[in-house]
Amino acid sequence: MSETLNRESLLKAYRIMRTIRxxxxxxxxxxxxxxxxxxVHLYAGEEASATGVCMHLxxxxxxxxxxxxxxxxxxxxxxxxxxxxxxxGKATGTCKGKGGSMHIADxxxxxxxxNGIVGGGGPLICGTALAAKIRGTQDVGVCFFGDGASxxxxxxxxxxxxxxxxxxxxxxxxxxxxxxxxxxKYSVPCENIADRAPAFGMPGVIVDGFDFxxxxxxxxxAIRRAREGGGPTLLEVKLSRYYGHFEGDQQTYRAPxxxxxxxxxxxxxxxxxxxxxxxxxxxxxxLDAIDREVKTLIDDSVVxxxxxxxxxxxxxxxxxxxxx
Amino acid sequence: MAxxxxxxxxxxxxxxxxxxxxxxxxxxxxxxxxxxxxxxxxDAWGGVLGVTKGLFHKYPGRVLDTPISESGYVGAAVxxxxxxxxxxxxxMFVDFIGVCFDQIYNQAxxxxxxxxxxxxxxxxxxxxxxxxxxAAAQHSQCxxxxxxxxxxxxxxxxxxxxxxKGLLIQSIxxxxxxxxxxxxxxxxxxxxxxxxxxxxxxxxxxxAREGDDVTIVAFGRMVNQALTAAAxxxxxxxxxxxxxxxxxxxxxxxxxxxxxxxxxxLVIVDESTPRCSMASDIAGIVAQKAFxxxxxxxxxxxxxxxxxxxxxALEDLYVPSPARIEAAVTRVKEYR
Lengths: 324, 336
What we know:
The complex is a heterodimer of chains A (324) and B (336).
Chain A: H1 7-31, H2 47-54, E1 62-64, H3 70-76, H4 80-87, H5 121-135, E2 141-146, H6 153-164, E3 169-175, E4 178-179, E5 182-183, H7 184-187, E6 204-208, H8 212-227, E7 233-238, H9 258-265, H10 268-277, H11 284-307
Parallel strand pairs in A: 1-2, 2-3, 3-7, 6-7
Antiparallel strand pairs in A: 4-5
Helix pairs in contact in A: 1-2, 1-3, 1-10, 1-11, 2-3, 2-8, 4-11, 5-6
Chain B: E1 4-6, H1 7-21, E2 25-29, H2 55-58, E3 63-65, H3 70-82, E4 86-93, H4 101-114, E5 124-129, H5 144-148, E6 154-156, H6 161-173, E7 178-183, E8 190-192, E9 206-209, E10 214-218, H7 221-235, E11 240-244, E12 247-249, H8 253-263, E13 266-270, H9 278-289, E14 299-302, H10 312-318, H11 322-334
Parallel strand pairs in B: 2-3, 2-4, 4-5, 5-7, 6-7, 10-11, 10-13, 13-14
Antiparallel strand pairs in B: 1-8, 6-12, 9-11
């Protein structure tokens, strides 16, 4: 199966990916009813990336995420129940209903936030990595960003700074092919985002983002190099999102049948299940049981999110400063 | 008689004492040491004007030269603050905020609120500001009002060496993001500064001069212009009270309002351009909260609504002068 993954780890990886998928499919369904406020950007289809990377991380490692951040949150250990309440704008949410989908953060598990600003996380993750380096720990920082952010100056600056300071940082470019409605074939003039890595004096690696094992292996090498003082890596994960840029996006810019074909042929959960059940050590029944448990968890999170109270009027004015 | 040092030395001393006190304090910026990777001496500059000189050798590994990459390193300072350090990032000229503002106003300032009170971002952004160096439009602005507008930031504008030291120490110890603005003309100003460490709390104005006739509220370098004007007006029998808020966020409204209740006349001196400025902000606060006490229209002595010009003939007209302050005070004093 895999050199570095035992049975327990494989089941854990499956559970995380399944949780992300279930969470996102459920938000997709519920958003259509008009009950969820604001706008959401779903990670369904990209699960192998967040999971393959975060399986290597501890709670002391930091990640910075994007507007499409639910998957990164779950993979890093943020409680999906709190996340669902946050997305529903409830006081019980991860951020007390003050952040919403685009700002879910939980520093207690090393999740420095989804981010409403494209490319905003690059410099921040240089900072968490710098703190680790100065303290002399083995902790790393991982910046997830998309093909859109790959053209942002903040990402260029962050990669340069990480290389100059030889920081334990990993830049994970999740190239899902579209920045909003603009194809990366148009906006990224080189063949691959990873081709830019040598310009910053760091390794650039390309992996198939539908293949959990490929992501896990490549991320493992980059993270080990960072922990050992070898500096940053740019890891480009080629994948696809199953839904629009935001919920409600009609996606007329995509080819007809594009997503359906991916779901049927390349889906990361499908491939993962096929592969880990191949030798019979893990059975479909075991995975079906995980599916049921995850569904119960997500169903429950929605029931609770709907029933939970909204923030009180007094909450409007709190948490701006530590002291003022 | 206390020891006298310059504003610049006071800032250096504050950094030095806090770095000695707390190993989590690091500083970073363009040429904060200077000479990184170059064949000559290390700590060649100690900051573009020498403000951080000497710290590089004293605190190995904690004074970081950066590429000219403000978004990168200001954001890194913010991220490091989230991960347990207390970074002081120097932006050199505050005018450079335009290339890194997102990391300050969308990231650092908002983390605590967006994350439901679960984040602390104890970062200090130091930057020099202000006109008077013939440095023209992109190296001379007064932008404290822009930062003051943003909830989540604290904004500090010391007007003298004593305040510079005590307020910077408070900034470093503070658990919120702080913008610490140093007026470049004041770097050579001397004043009495205790050798020991001390912190000046935010939101507590300094009444730099007491008087009963007219209240003058001034910021940063303008406090000194106001004091010069007040001394001259004293000879004409006009007694000005000069208030230095020291921080624009939080703002000590009480001290300003109490003074206006006493004098009934207010002049605000602000080196910034006039629209949406500290001058207009304070005028609005006083007009609303001390309307009954006012005996004359509020005067705002500010820069004109133009970029900072280069030629000395124009820059000297741009910056509010003691003469303009005197004229404004005289107008409100004589208003009937």
